[in-house]
Automatic annotation (TrEMBL):
This is C-Maf-inducing protein. It comes from the Eukaryota. Pfam families: PH_21 (PF23066). Residues 1-96 form the C-Maf-inducing protein PH domain. PANTHER family: C-MAF-INDUCING PROTEIN, LEUCINE-RICH REPEAT-CONTAINING PROTEIN 73. It comes from Magallana gigas.
Amino acid sequence: MNSKYLRRWESHRIVLDKNEIRSCTECGMMENPIPYSSIEDVHIISRWDAGQKFCIRITVPDGSLLIQAHNSYIRDQWLHSVLWKKHMYKCEKLLKNARRPEVLVKEIKNMIDVSLTTNIQDASVYQFPLDLVSDLLQQNADFITRVAHENIIVALAPLLENNHPTQEICEFFSKHCKNSPRSSIVIELFTPVVQRILKHNTDFGKYPRMRGFVQEYVQALNCQNGGYDVVQNFVKSMHSPASACPHPRVLPNLVAVCLAAIYSCFEEKKNAMQDNTNTVLDIQEWENKLCCYIGMLDTMSAFADWRLVLGSLLQPIPFPNDALANELFTSKMKSVLRNIASDEKCDVHQTILGIREGKEGWFHLYTPGTIGCDDEGELWGVMLKSLIRCCCKRKKFLTELNKMIGPVMLLALRENEAAMEVLCAMLELEVVDNEDLKLQMVTTLQSTCKGKRMYAQLCERQIALRELQQKGGPKKLTLPSKSTDSDLAKMLSSGSFGNLECLSLAFTHVTSACANDLIKLPSLRYLNLWSTQFGDNGLQLISEYLQKLQVLNLCETPVTDKGLSCLATLKNLRKLNLNSTSLSKLTFEGLVEKLPALQECDVRYTDAW
């Protein structure tokens, strides 16, 4: 403390507490803290800057306190911090004692203006007003009028441009969306707040009222003129005009909102039906709400870069049983699933299958004859086409289709080409044991012109295959470097290779497509694919058919854990070269455990090395 006649300096570590300025070492002139309420003025003493004494003066009733900092920047930060603390202390006192709505609104505006104009760069500068307003909204909910309600929202808007609302403020906003869905505030002020939440929130599980606010905001948009289109345009705006969305959290957050809202819809309907009171459910309003959220999923599925994540999130069918038994729901979801199933990328359209054995997926839900199929199998045919022509023309998948052979034959009779291809593949790969069923499949194929042609081609391939597999021919075969898939197919079609045990395709240009020719070599024991483009799809196929394989070289191939894990079915494998592949340590340990005959495995330059 100083006066006109006395001044001395002391070293202190000063802290700005909630209600006062105090020193960590309470001694000397700072033995007693200085309450913010006693501070009359705070200003810089610039005349001392030349002497490297960067000071601010804090005036109190019985004198003043000089604080000297190391440089002008720290001094300025202390000045703004003390002023901000003093003002927040005053605002808090006024706001907690306010009993009139207009006074409350005025002081909230004043507090937020100070927070937005201060030079302090600290998260607490913006968080403190939000927390204080949250407390006030809970304490004064009874006397806040509709006009004050809107004025508070307007006052908070600038602060929320770069900050998330608290849970209490989210609940406050939700009430406004529910009570005044067509007010201008919803679109003008809530839209940027919701956009920020969707772009930056990482866990709605921790902030359920934040998700509830987004749901109510969507329903407020749905109440506008042309509400359905307004909601879908909002979803499109969250993706951005670019081909890829720059915000990775947007899609999971939108899906979380839709899933929670759909659950709420069916919970609301269930409660209304079980309620003994005279609660009446407005069916039209309920259906409008349900269609709104399914429409959001449909709009998301229209973006190619979103389909993989969307398909993965929907793959476990995360909806209540009441939804899956509801005709409106299953009908509206067809558009979403058609977009996912029609995607050319294997990882995307495979998400319509179950996540594991025994857990059915969308493909099973829309099988002809089930409750989800109301289009005579049209959507199921689209799903079947994508699967059979890309990643699932394998014995394992076709064996699982044995349970659905009736719907497959029904679609084949209706001249669905994908169903005909399935029947031909099942006959070719001998996945059906029942002779009567085989004859019925042949009869089904011969019932249509297209089916007759496909069956005739199958018979020709079978004759060629038998010739290829006849005993005789070389035991070893090495293709020249730079040979292609077509070169291999031409070579194998030139004679019988029933004795072929050793095949080297090292340093050729073959891809996974050649697997369809490799699986026709039943005696193959040694296969060298070193430095080729043979990938996961081919690996999955040969793992099912070449059960006699003992030596496999995949060095410098683009295989990943997805394909390598399939090698666990090759129980006769003795030597395996995975040098310079994308093998992980976990997959390697799994292979070692499941391959009892494995003696050598080269994993150099992999994560398992």
